[in-house]
Specification:
Layout: H1 14-40, E1 43-44, E2 53-54, H2 58-65, H3 67-99, H4 106-118, H5 121-131, H6 138-145, H7 162-186, H8 191-199, H9 204-215, H10 217-232, H11 236-241, H12 253-263, H13 267-295
Antiparallel strand pairs: 1-2
Helix pairs in contact: 1-13, 2-13, 3-7, 3-10, 4-7, 7-10, 10-13, 12-13
Length: 297
């Protein structure tokens, strides 16, 4: 006979009571704002008047033909290269160098490489804005010092270099997270695998290809989802560094939401853009998880 066991004197509903505060906080501060944003996207509203005008899908139709939205979305897709692909490649390389062999000062190197991930993005933006300063910035000063005056530029003001300049900062921020994630995954790979591979004559590159990379498949999924989400929802770095400029060369979707809502008072349109961005993030996350689950079958 099946029996349900619980601690003597405790109600079976006590577990639900424990999670109730977290559920209430989630409903009030996460789920409700999301649903309210979706509802607002079907209205025309300036954010000040009480009355809203229901316009159905008009905000979404306008969004699909808005050249600024399409341009901002294309910039976010480019940022995926800098926020996701390059950091993952750097992360696996650094994890391979630091994870297989015990080196003096290993903890220091790990902490130092991970440091950009824990610094506030506003601080990161202010610091790199100083580094890229065309007049007294250390980057241009170094280029001039070594005789490369022709390479000195107003990096954040150049129409061709502003976007990759911001993207490189994103790479600097995200690669430490990928490295630590892969290092943690490498700890669960049995050392016997590498010893057997060495006895069979496999070199370091072959061990990385046939042992390390296949074993880190779950970590790759987490890294992809986390870094792609960071690339799609980037705002604070762009706000501090360029405000979407020069022109709209660094405009991203999150900054377009901010500008439409708080500078142009187009709350309904901003809500529609935010809703579409959320759906894109959910779709990409679902596809990555689905592909990962199929590859593990």
């Amino acid at each position: 006979m099946n029996k349900k066991y619980h601690w003597p004197g405790e109600s079976r509903f006590l577990g639900y009571l424990y999670i109730l505060p977290g559920v209430v906080i989630y409903l009030l501060f996460v789920l409700y704002p999301v649903l309210e944003t979706v509802r607002t996207s079907f209205y025309r509203w300036d954010g000040f008047t009480v009355n809203r005008t229901f316009i159905g899908l008009q905000n979404y139709r306008q969004l699909l033909i808005d050249s600024q939205f399409l341009q901002a979305l294309s910039h976010n897709l480019i940022f995926i290269i800098f926020y996701s692909i390059i950091p993952i490649v750097l992360g696996i390389i650094l994890a391979s160098l630091l994870g297989r062999r015990r080196l003096p000062g290993m903890t220091f190197f790990r902490a130092g490489l991970f440091l950009p991930q824990v610094i506030s993005m506003v601080v990161v933006g202010v610091m790199w804005r100083w580094i890229f300063n065309p007049v007294f910035g250390p980057l241009n000063a170094f280029l001039k010092m070594v005789g490369l005056n022709s390479l000195a530029r107003p990096w954040l003001g150049d129409f061709n270099l502003a976007l990759p300049s911001v993207g490189i900062i994103g790479t600097w921020v995200m690669y430490g997270f990928c490295m630590v994630l892969f290092l943690a995954g490498m700890q669960r790979i049995p050392e016997d695998y590498y010893e057997a591979a060495e006895l069979d004559g496999a070199n370091e590159v072959q061990q990385l290809r046939y042992i390390t990379l296949p074993s880190l498949r779950p970590e790759f999924g987490v890294a992809l989802i986390t870094t792609i989400i960071a690339a799609l929802r980037v705002f604070d770095l762009v706000y501090v560094l360029t405000r979407g400029g020069p022109g709209d060369r660094t405009l991203v979707v999150a900054f377009l939401v901010y500008r439409a809502a708080f500078q142009q008072n187009r709350i309904g349109y901003a809500a529609a853009v935010a809703t579409v961005l959320t759906l894109i993030i959910l779709l990409i996350s679902f596809l990555i998880l689905r592909f990962q689950s199929r590859s593990e079958e």
